[in-house]
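Record 1 of the preview.
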Amino acid sequence: MKIALMNEWSQAPKNEIIYRKLRAVADKYGHSVYNVGMVKEDDMPHLTYIHLGLMAAVLLNSGAVDFVVTGCGTGEGAMISLNNYPGVMCGLISEPVDGYLFCQINNGNAISLPYAKGFGWGAELNLQYIFEHILSCERGNGYPPDKKEVQNQNAAILNRVKSIVNRDIMTILNTMDRDILLTSCSGKAFRKCLFENSQITEIADYIRKIKVPAKV
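->
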């Protein structure tokens, strides 16, 4: 599984520890991790949780990655932003049991974590255990297991409803505010991940045509 890690500017100082814990667990189970920023608070482009939603949508809908790990101060803003988009189902995860139940019941493709609220003593262990529960097990097995069938049915129905109420990703890209689009899609690590792994040529080609400022 290909995993993208992304966080907004206020939590950039924590990117290193998040990446280190995610990478350690991902390597253990044979997954790849792409750290698309922000790595430092003064990095460019300057990302907010608003940009994270579009970034995740592009990477997931293009097939460049299979899963996104994101977050902000509370995790709420990033989760709401990601869930705006088609093909993205993001859960708010604050402890390991949340991660396990999200994967078994909802079987989404993105998680948002709080990187300021409650991020104190032992926070790095909480991250590790969350990633262990998400990356070590087969997803969609239901909880309790005897509820698997109905929970999988509901997850599939929700995905179909989302495809109806959301516009498709190309329509979104073509009508998105240009400043938001440029900021979201101009990062070097983001573009490298997209261009090297995208399975949908139309999406990658569209992003490739975006003129990136020299300072980025």
